[in-house]
Amino acid sequence: MRKSLIFFLVFIISVSLSAQKKRMQKRVEKDTIFRDDLTNPLSPSKAAFYSAVLPGLGQAYNKKYWKIPLVYGALGSSSYYYFLNNSDLRQYRNAYKLRLAGKPDEFLGLISNDGLISAQKTLKRNRDLSLFLTLAFYALNIIEANVDAHLQDRPIDNKVSFRPLINYASDINKPVFGIATTIKIN
């Protein structure tokens, strides 16, 4: 009798602990999403950090290897034109300084003083634009890696819809034509 009472108590305690454990699991599952296909929540910041340290590394971290040549193409071409314009600017500036000092330069007889000044302004503007584009491509590289890492765990509907759009613009008294694009992100 005593053994059966102990057995009964052990059985009741184990059943109640098992039921309590199942209730805890349901509560945890309700509060927290446990899915294997979700990415690491820190991956966007890692991807952005990697792209900031070495451009293209964030794209490699996101396993979008086809984007790496685009990153280096954009950064490389804008950097190339920065250095090219800077070199040409120095060349024209030195020629202008030599001409002001009364010494012969490589453009003597080919380009006037006004032409040298105009070339310097154009080359300086192009150099500054190339520097801006290099910095913009560097920032876009970081932003793209971050956004791509954010979107990896969200299903995107493959059906992208394009439909013509015609509105009447009352201020110019004419119809305005366009295209409306719809992309669904769940």
What can be said about this structure in brief?
This protein is 63% helix and 10% strand.
Distance between the termini: 62 Å
Please give the number of β-strands: 2
What average pLDDT do the residues reach? 81
Note the beta-strand portion: 5-15%
Helix content: 55-70%
The value of Rg in angstroms is 33 Å
The order of strands across the largest sheet is 1-2
Task: Give helix and strand order, one letter per element, not per position.
Answer: HHHHHEE
Overall, the morphology is: flat
Largest sheet: 2 strands, antiparallel
- Total helical segments: 5
Structural class, by secondary structure, is: mainly alpha
Low-confidence spans: none
Structure commentary:
The protein has 186 residues and is mainly alpha-helical. The protein has a domain at 39-154. The chain has five helices and two strands, in the order αααααββ. The chain has helices spanning 2-31, 43-53, 57-61, 68-100, 113-151, and strands at 161-169, 174-182. The protein has a two-stranded antiparallel ribbon with strand order 1-2. The protein is flat.
